[in-house]
């Protein structure tokens, strides 16, 4: 079964600022080649979080096939094969576990990466990034699940109120979120992410 991953990073979130100048942080999450790339790019912060988003998305994909896989981002290499004006295609190479195919979207506000364990699946993903409402306090996780639930209801001709997105525990750890319709688990593969002002989801056709 093909799996899906996605990750969004708010480039204007204060907690994300200035990390491209923190050499200790860079060595924890990037390969030597990636660190050199950061040092020589015109937008080091965006480049840093782009690489991070790719690795996070890749981990969400691989974790479903290999639940015990350790996330050691400094050993995972991001390689971009094709750069378009609106996105970049590539893959994350994971030692001993193959690769995850990725597509990265970037602008001045956020970076967003979607991933899949085959390029054919990558081309069939449906995804969205949305800003959280500014006028009131809101739980980003609940907001994201509601937005995805509405999209799934429309896409699959379902009743929104019958759709629940849950994360169950196994051996004391939360698993990837799953879609339930009428109380029954479905095979709709989804991925959720939120950071700062943005929420994002992806799912497979």
Features:
205 residues, five-stranded antiparallel sheet, alpha+beta, Ribosomal Protein L22, Chain A, 29% helix
What does this structure look like?
By secondary structure, this protein is α+β, with helices and mostly antiparallel strands. The protein folds into 2 domains: 4-127, Alpha-Beta Complex (Ribosomal Protein L22, Chain A); 131-204, no CATH class. Helices cover 29% and strands 35% of the residues. It is built from 5 helices and 13 strands. It has a 5-stranded antiparallel β-sheet with strand order 1-5-4-3-2. Helix 2 (32-40) runs antiparallel to helix 3 (44-65). The protein is globular and about 50 Å long. It starts with a strand and ends with a strand. 36% of the residues are buried. The mean pLDDT is 93.
List strands and helices in order, with pairings.
Blueprint: E1 4-10, H1 23-29, H2 32-40, H3 44-65, E2 77-83, E3 88-94, E4 98-106, E5 110-116, H4 119-122, E6 125-131, H5 140-156, E7 163-166, E8 169-170, E9 173-174, E10 178-181, E11 184-185, E12 190-195, E13 198-204
Antiparallel strand pairs: 1-5, 2-3, 3-4, 4-5, 6-13, 7-10, 8-9, 10-11, 12-13
Helix pairs in contact: 2-3
Low-confidence stretches: none
**What would CATH call the architecture of the largest domain?**
Alpha-Beta Complex
Compute the number of helices: 5
Q: What structural class should be given to the helix and strand makeup?
A: alpha+beta
Q: How would the global form be characterised?
A: globular
Return the average pLDDT rounded to an integer: 93
CATH topology name of the largest domain, in short, is: Ribosomal Protein L22, Chain A
- Distance N terminus to C terminus? 12 Å
The string of secondary-structure elements, in order, is EHHHEEEEHEHEEEEEEE
Helix content: 25-40%
Q: Looking at this structure, what is the CATH superfamily of the largest domain?
A: 4'-phosphopantetheinyl transferase domain
Can you tell me the CATH class of the largest domain? Alpha Beta
Strand order of the largest sheet: 1-5-4-3-2
Strand content: 25-35%
Total strand segments: 13
Gyration radius (Cα, Å) is 17 Å
Task: Tell me the domain tally.
Answer: 2
Major beta sheet summary = 5 strands, antiparallel
């Amino acid at each position: 079964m093909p799996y899906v991953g996605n990750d969004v990073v708010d480039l204007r979130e204060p907690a994300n600022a200035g990390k491209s100048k923190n050499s200790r942080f860079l060595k924890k999450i990037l390969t030597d080649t990636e660190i050199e790339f950061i040092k020589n790019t015109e937008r080091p912060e965006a480049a840093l979080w782009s690489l991070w988003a790719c690795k996070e998305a890749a981990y969400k994909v691989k974790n479903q096939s290999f639940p015990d896989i350790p996330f050691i981002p400094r050993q995972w290499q991001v390689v971009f094969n094709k750069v378009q004006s609106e996105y970049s295609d590539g893959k994350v190479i994971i030692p001993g576990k193959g690769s995850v195919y990725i597509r990265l979207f970037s602008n001045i506000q956020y970076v967003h990466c979607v991933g899949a364990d085959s390029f054919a699946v990558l081309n069939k993903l449906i995804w969205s990034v949305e800003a959280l409402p500014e006028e009131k306090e809101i739980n980003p996780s609940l907001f994201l699940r509601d937005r995805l639930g509405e999209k799934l209801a429309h896409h699959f001709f379902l009743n929104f109120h019958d759709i629940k997105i849950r994360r169950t525990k196994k051996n004391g750890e939360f698993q990837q979120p799953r879609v339930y319709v009428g109380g029954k688990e479905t095979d709709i593969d989804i991925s959720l992410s939120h950071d700062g002002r943005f929420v994002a989801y992806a799912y497979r056709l």
